[in-house]
Amino acid sequence: MSLEFLVSSAIGLLTACGVYLVLRARTFPVVLGLTFLSYAINLFLFACGRLVINRPPLFDKAAEAYADPLPQALVLTAIVIAFGMTAFVVILALRTYLESGVDHVDGRSDAAGQRRTGEPSQGGAA
Amino acid sequence: MTAWIIVPVALPALVAALTLLSLRHRLALSRTVSIVATGLLAVLSIVLLGHASTGAIEVYAVGSWVAPYGIVLVLDRLSALMLALTSLLALPVLVHAIVTDLDRRGWHFHPLFQFQLLGLNGAFLTGDLFNLFVFFEVLLIASYGLMLHGQGAARLKAGLQYVVVNLVGSTLFLVAVGLLYGATGTLNMADMAVRVAAASPGDQALIKAGGLLLIVVFGLKAALVPLHFWLPRTYASTSGAMAALFAIMTKVGAYAIIRMVTLVFGATAQASAWAPAPWILGAALLTMALGFAGVLGGEGGSGTCRPSPSSVPWGSCWRASRCSSRQR
Known about the structure:
The structure holds 2 protein chains of 2 kinds. Chain A is mostly helical. Chain A has 4 helices and no strands. The C terminus of chain A is likely disordered. Chain B contains 12 helices and 2 strands. The C terminus of chain B is likely disordered. By secondary structure, chain B is mainly α. Classes of the chains: A mainly alpha, B mainly alpha. At the A-B interface, helix 2 and helix 3 of A face helix 5, helix 6 and helix 9 of B.
């Protein structure tokens, strides 16, 4: 199997898992799904600079050719941002669950999810 | 004049760090610093608007790195106008928040507010696509904090939804940036316009896909109609002053649509020339209709200090519809 096939199928699989988990609409699977999606995106960004093997990204006297260093910098930024956001969304999801007792992303309780006449989603704020 | 372009980005960053690190227990002092900084920002943005209204386009290369390699900040009439709009909105919002003691209801209001301004100003000024993504993230992260400021179960529930939607949006933004970078080999917007105009036939489909995906992301931020479902609940459940400030956040999406479509996907863009235009026109008209229905039929539309949430997409759709009508 070629390198291209492995990388592209890995990206595809990660994205598929991510989309499936995000659509579960409960906070824990959603957080996992977002993590999968950000992994897929990191790989994808990496592949944007073309797949090359054993090439230095920065200056090297012996090198004949170089790998594209820019996608590597982009991936680094994307990793940092995704990591920070994951930490934030985990804390936010925990806080929401502890305060409202609901782990649905759209804030609906389980009973109201089955019959839409349940608890009003806005509480007293509307 | 050129060096002043960096100030709307640098000033809120410095003030945010100052109020966060050394003034966190001195509310009165951090209020003063925050007000003075926002006032200075308003004055500066008006001066910059006056300068840009002559038609001059100023480019500031950050760290003196030359244009296609380094990050540039660009000031033209549109970005100067948005800058002035932001700071002139931020000043009364900040005064309102202080007068109503909103900043007393939780921690770190002033640093978050300044970070929000940093993200907004940066997004309006940057001339680099990935830098635009970074400033989007800065303003979104600050907005999560401001949106949840004061807390309460209803606000937390709406906030979670808002955060998740925007995280998925940011993921799509990165996909679009990756596609465009892979096809053109640059992230500088002006350089990208040149490369798109000269792209080989084999790259046309990738560029078109990247461009349309970018418009989907900006449409999500601007709350264009099929992507607007996150907005009413988020803006309705946050505090009034913050909802007023967030009105400018949907404009960031509209601004980015105008900037990218007219600059990169304009008449020179071969196969992807004006590709997003028919979609934007339809979505903008629907948003406008829905926005009017929301304003006229909304429960809290008049008589309360809280702005009707549905009135917010109206403004952005007006801009988007102007954008697409300009392309005709």
